[in-house]
Amino acid sequence: MSFDQAFVTLATNDNYAKGAMVLARSLRNHHTTSKLVVLTGPQVSDPCQSVLKKLFDEVRVVDVLDSKDTAHLAMMKRPDLGVTFTKLHCWTLTHYSKCVFMDADTLVVSNIDDLFEREELSAAPDPGWPDCFNTGVFVFQPSMATYEKLMQYSAEHGSFDGGDQGVLNGFFSSWATTDISKHLPFIYNLSSIALYTYLPAFKQYGGNAKVVHFLGQMKPWSLTFDPKAQKVRGGSQDAVASHSSFLLDWWTLYSREVLPLLQEHYGDQPFHSGCVEEEECQEASAAASEASRLSSEERRERWERGQADYMGEDSFENIQKKLDAFLK
Ligand code: UDP
Ligand code: GLC
Ligand code: MN
Predict the structure, then answer these.
(1) In this model, does residue 241 exceed pLDDT 50?
(2) Does residue 34 sit in the same domain as residue 97?
(3) Mean pLDDT of the chain
(4) What is the distance in A from the centroid of ligand 1 to the CA of 259?
(5) Is the same domain home to 176 and 275?
(6) Nearest ligand for residue 165 CA
(7) For residues 57 and 37, what is the distance between their CA atoms, to the nearest angstrom?
(8) Pocket of ligand 1 contains residue 88 by CB under 6 Å
(9) Confidence check: pLDDT of 194 > 80
(10) What is the CA(219)–ligand 3 centre distance, in A?
(11) pLDDT at 254
(12) Is the pLDDT of residue 310 over 60?
């Protein structure tokens, strides 16, 4: 066990806490020898806090920082992301010499302990703007001095996207041009959006993924899962389940290794497990499909904003069907 290095994540509410739990299991299943740390806020319920304590070596309750930058967040259509400023607390974990931050919506599919050989600030390109790094996975060195400089920087300059990614790219502004060893290969932070923007590359290299990032508004936990049929449903179409094996990986891990712990800690209290029987699933998915049917104009706009419905209307199969029809 490497006591001076840690994987760190953040969960300010119960939904993201579920993501953090799955992430922790995925790291352990791939035999990490590092510590696991989760930063949480007071909004996380007691049963979820207890499960986090079982799965992480350290659960640290921090002040939730919010950029409250509604103007910039509106540009991303993600008003909820102001609280990602809370991520900056990770620099205060000075009892570790090196850490890797991972969003709670990431899933590890292969051992990534080699990341600790990298220096601050190492990260993979953002799929939307590759001269920026994506802050879903990054290597950093905890330091109070850096933390204070970051706080000062964000107070003076704010964030161009209203979230942590805007601040961190402003602060570590030489990332794009100075040191290639700080560019993590994309397979360390593979966002499903890659499937749209460069489908042949996804087919060629997607199988080498080490970390999958469910970036965007729709998260695995906002869908439903039928454990008997082993199918994920919801979103706008049933294509959800069929094409995304990563989504199925997430739900399989959640239902086998996290749900039993949640059930144990919730006891008789009701909670939303996300797992439903076939019929309930179909009802849920029909309702979701009706609610989210968008005009093609709206869909194109969303795609251009990086919010493609990659599980549904814009699924791999649907895109391929359209391409085939077009080529004919
Ligand atoms: N996060 C959180 N609570 C929130 C929103 C975000 O704890 O209400 C954390 C969580 O770790 C999440 C990260 O901040 O993974 C970044 O947000 P998200 O993954 O939703 O952004 P995206 O990657 O989709 O841009
Ligand atoms: C991004 C990143 C996420 C970050 C958010 C806000 O899309 O994936 O990690 O928190 O922007 O800056
Ligand atoms: Mn994310």
Answers:
(1) no
(2) yes
(3) 86
(4) 21
(5) no
(6) 2
(7) 6
(8) no
(9) no
(10) 9
(11) 97
(12) no
Pocket test for ligand 2, best of 12, 135, 168, 307 (most atoms within 8 A of CB): 135
Q: Is the CB of 69 under 6 A from ligand 2?
A: no
**What confidence tens digit (pLDDT) does each residue in 258-272 have?**
999 999 999 999 889
From the CA of 216, how far away is ligand 3's center (Å)? 7
Same-domain check for residues 62 and 148: yes
The reply to whether ligand 2 has any atom less than 6 angstroms from the CB of 161 is yes
Q: Which ligand is nearest to the CA of 222?
A: 1
Cα 310 to chain centroid, rounded:
15
- Ligand 2 atom 4: the closest Cα is on which residue? 165
Residue 321 pLDDT level (bands cut at 50, 70, 90): low
Whole-angstrom distance, CA of residue 161 vs CA of residue 168:
11
83 Cα: distance to centroid of ligand 1 (angstroms): 8
Output the CA torsion sign for 87, 91, 95, 96: positive
Question: In terms of Cα–Cα distance, which of 197, 208, 235, 12 is closest to 103?
Answer: 12
Task: Assess whether pLDDT exceeds 50 at residue 239.
Answer: no
Question: How far, in Å, CA of 209 to CA of 217, rounded?
Answer: 21
Does one domain contain both 60 and 172?
A: yes
- Ligand 1 atom nearest to CA at 19: 15
Contacts of 135 (CB under 8 A, 6+ apart): 84, 87, 101, 103, 123, 163, 164, 165, 168, 169
**In the predicted model, is pLDDT for residue 238 greater than 60?**
no
Same domain, 29 and 173: yes
Kindly state whether residue 69 falls inside one of the protein's structural domains.
yes
Q: What is the position in ligand 2's atom list of the atom closest to the CA of 135? A: 9
- Note down the domain range covering 227: 218-327
Whether 153 has a pLDDT exceeding 70, the answer reads yes
Q: How far is the CA of 180 from the centre of ligand 2 (A)?
A: 22
pLDDT tens for 3-62 read: 899 999 999 999 999 999 999 999 999 999 999 999 999 999 999 999 999 999 999 999
Closest by CA to 308, choosing from 93, 95, 77, is 77
